[in-house]
Amino acid sequence: MTRRELAVDPDDRLMNYILTLGHAYTLDKQIFVMVYLLLHGAIKTTVLLLLVKKVRWGYPLAAAVFAVFIVLQVLAFLRGHSPFMIYQTALDVALVVLILVEYRRMGPKTPSSPDSPA
Question: Which of the listed residues 68, 69, 84, 94 has the most CB atoms within 10 Å of its CB?
């Protein structure tokens, strides 16, 4: 992809950046990113389904799960300085805030709660 452009202009910054990214993006990294995103998505989906069903214990669980993801993403950002990690972390922080606000709005547990024994 970059060969023709670099043949014309060897100092092209964009093409050199793309070339560098291509060399740094190994198969191991591709597999790690794929597994990370699949697990991340599966765990988030499971936790969010608990919230949709208004399962009371799902709220603290969701906040804890997202907090763990926030810590892991901050550590990943510190290692690789990926802007994607900042974006992902900002979304997770917003989700934790919204989860805690909703949990407080639910009030104390009542006998008619969906997760109480019948």
Answer: 69
What pLDDT band is residue 113 in, cutting at 50, 70 and 90? low
HSE, CB side, 13 Å, CA atoms: give it for residue 75.
Answer: 6
Q: Are 55 and 114 contacting, i.e. CB atoms less than 8 angstroms apart?
A: yes
Eight-state DSSP code of residue 115: T
Is the backbone of residue 110 left (phi > 0), alpha (psi -120 to 50) or beta?
beta
pTM for this entry: 0.63
**pLDDT score recorded for residue 61:** 92
Write the burial class of residue 65 (CB in 10 Å: 0-12 exposed, 13-18 middle, 19+ buried).
buried
Structure tokens at 77: 């950002």
Residues 47 and 62: beta-carbon distance below 8 Å? yes
Look at residue 113 and give its three-state secondary structure: coil
User: CA–CA separation, 7 vs 4, rounded Å?
Assistant: 5
What ranges do the domains of the chain cover? 27-106
* Average pLDDT in the chain: 83
